[in-house]
Amino acid sequence: MMSKTRYQLHWITAVMSVLKTLKEMIVPILILVFANGVNDTGKWYLDYLTFLIFGFLIIVFFVTGIIKWKRYVYWFEEDELRIEYGLFVKKKRYIPFDRIQSLDYTEGILHRPFNLVKVSVETAGGSASLKAEAELTAITKEAATVIEMEIAEAKKRKIQGANLDEEFIEEVEVERESLVRKIFALSGKDLLVLATTSGGVGLIISGVIIFLFQFADILPIEWAYREVSVFIKSGLLLVAIAVFLILLVIWGISVAMTFFAYYGFTVQIDDEDIVITRGLLEKKRVTVPLNRVQSVRIVENPFRKLFGYANVVIDNAGGGVVGEGAKINLFPIVKKEAINTPLGELFPELVLEKPTNKLPARSKRFYYRIEFVWMVPAVAALSYFFFPFGLFSFLIVPIVISWGLWHHRSAAYEISGNQLTMRFRAFSLQTVYMMKNRIQSMEMKQNYFHRKRKVATVSAAIKSGMGAFYAQVKHMEEEEAERILAWYEPVREAVVVEDLDIEQ
Questions:
Q1: Do residues 2 and 147 touch, judged by C-beta distance below 8 A?
Q2: What pLDDT, on a 0 to 100 scale, did the predictor assign at position 92?
Q3: 41-58: b or e for each residue (b if 16 or more CB lie within 10 Å)?
Q4: How many whole angstroms separate alpha carbon 103 and alpha carbon 106?
C-alpha cells in the first residue's frame, strides 16, 4: 500500500544550508572585512559597520536555512517519489520509480553523529548537467531504507502486473540476495601508491599560486619577498633543506587527502548494479547499473606503469556532463596482472586482450609533422635573438620527434566480434573496450595529405554522462579505417529500420 505521509529532512539540514552559503560567501566576506577593518570615526556603528553587516548576513543565512528546511518535504504516491521545496517560490518535482537508476549515499562529518545520510537520486536522463535529479540532504538511514523498499515494492507490483506468481517472485528475491559479492578492494599499499602518484602535489601547488595571485593586493607580498630574499642569501644548503621540507609537507597533505577520499574503497556487484563505497571523513556509496556502462578504459600513467600499476575507468550513461557521475574510477589503482579477473567478473562479455593491429610505418610523419609548423620558426627566433644560448632550442627537435613516435608506437586497434578495442595515448596510455551497441557514432576523417598517403583517422563516440567521450586512432591504414566503418554499419541500418517500423 502506498504511503502519502509527508516526510521532512533532519534539522541538521538547516545548519548545512547555512554552512554551505557561508562557504560560498566566505571570500567576498573576508575581502569586505580586511578591506574596511575597524575605523575610528567616533561613532561605534560606523567603526564596526563591517562586522555589523557580517553579523546581519549570518542571521539572514540562518533564517533562510530554517525556512528552506521547513518547506522541503517528500512523499511517495502513484509509484513516484514526490518532492516539494522552495524558499520564495514553491516547487514540486515528481520522479517515477521506474526512472530512478540508482540511489547514491554520502555520509559527511555532520551526518555521522545522528546516523544520517545524504541521498542523491540518479535517473536515466537527469535534469541538470552537474547535479543529481534530486538530493535529500540529511535523512536517517532507516528513512533511506524506506525509499529503497518503496522502489522495490513498485518493481514487485510491476512484476505482479505481468501475471507472475508469488513463488517466482520469492525465488527472484532469494537469488538477488545471493548475488551480492565483493569484486575489488584497495589494500593499504595500493592506497599509498595511489596517494603518491595521484598528482595531488601539483594541485596543491597550483591552488596556492592561484590564491596568491587572487589576493596579491591584500597579502604582504613585498614583505614576504624581502624575507625570502634575505633567507636565500643565508646559504644554498639551507634553501635546499627548506624547499625539501616544504615539498615533503605538501606531499604529506596530498597523501592525507587521497587517504581520506579512498579509504575503504570497495567494489561490489549487487544483482545488476555495481556498488562503489569509499571515504573516511565523508563516506560515499555510488551505484551504477551495469546496463548504463558504455565503455571500459584501462589507463596507464607512465609513472605508475614503472611499478606495474594502472587504473580502470568506466563511462556511465547516467550522471552529469563531467565528474564522478559520468566518468567513474572503477579501480583507482590496480596491478596490471590483476586487472582481468575482477573486470571479467563484472563484464564477462568483454574480450580483455591487448589490441594487436598496429599502424603503418608511413603514418609516423603525421605524428610530428604538425609540430614542425610552429617549432621551426620558434627555434629560429630563439637561436637568432638569444644567440648563442638560443641554439639549445634545437634540442626540442629530437624531443618532439620522439614524442610523436611514442604516440605512433602506442596506437593500436582490434575488432573481436561485436567489440571494438582502441588504444591511443595523450600522456597516459588508454585502452578502450567498446561494444558495438554502445557506440553512439563512428567517424572517419581524411585530409589531402591523408588521402595521398592512404591513411585516415577513426573516432568512436561513447555516451559519458550528458556528454560524450571520443576514442580515436589517428593515421591508420585507409583500408582498415573503412573496415571498421563497415563493421559498424549494420547497427546504423538496424536503427533506421527500427525507426521506420515505429513510424509505421
A1: no
A2: 87
A3: eeeeeeeebbeeeeeebe
A4: 10
Give the residue, 46 or 288, on which the prediction is more confident: 288
Which residues face 334 on adjacent strands?
310
Give CA 200 to chain center in angstroms: 15
Question: Between the CA atoms of 498, 499, 502 and 504, what dihedral angle is there, to the nearest 10 degrees?
Answer: -110
Question: What are phi and psi for residue 481, nearest 5 degrees?
Answer: -60, -40
Q: What is the distance between the alpha carbons of residues 454 and 479, in angstroms, rounded to a whole number?
A: 8
Question: What is the distance between the alpha carbons of residues 454 and 478, in angstroms, rounded to a whole number?
Answer: 5
Long-range contacts of 367-370 (CB under 8 A, 24+ apart): 367/404, 367/405, 367/407, 367/408, 367/474, 367/475, 368/400, 368/401, 368/403, 368/404, 368/405
Q: Nearest-CA neighbor of 299 among 199, 404, 376?
A: 199
User: In this structure, are residues 262 and 332 in contact, taking their beta carbons and an 8 Å threshold?
Assistant: yes
126 class by beta-carbon count within 10 Å (0-12 exposed, 13-18 middle, 19+ buried): buried
Cα separations in angstroms, 441 against 422, 437, 447: 15, 10, 20
DSSP string, 308-332: TEEEEEEEESSS-SSSTTTEEEEEE
Is residue 271 within 8 Å of 176, Cβ to Cβ?
yes
The pTM for the full model equals: 0.75
Give Cα 353 to chain centroid, integer Å.
Answer: 26
What contacts 86, CB < 8 A, 6 or more positions away? 71
Q: Please report the sign of the dihedral spanned by the C-alpha atoms of residue 315, residue 316, residue 321, residue 323.
A: negative
Q: What is the helix (H) or strand (E) element at residue 19, kind and residue range?
A: helix 12-36
Per DSSP, the residues of 184-240 read EE--HHHHHHHHHTSSHHHHHHHHHHHHHHHTTTTS-HHHHHHHHHHHHHT-HHHHH
Q: Report whether the peptide linkage leading into residue 332 is cis, meaning its omega lies within 30 degrees of zero.
A: no
Alpha-carbon gap, residue 266 to 136, rounded angstroms? 24
Q: Tell me what the mean pLDDT of segment 73-92 comes to.
A: 86
Q: Range with the lowest mean pLDDT among 98-102, 127-131, 324-328, 436-440?
A: 127-131
Overall residue count recorded for the chain in this entry:
504
Q: Which residue has the cell 568512436?
A: 460
Q: Rounded to an integer, what distance in angstroms lies between the CA atom of residue 195 and that of residue 438?
A: 33
- Taking the C-alpha atoms of residue 110 and residue 118, their distance in angstroms, rounded to an integer, is 10
Tell me the pLDDT tens digit for each residue of 218-241.
666 677 777 777 777 777 777 788
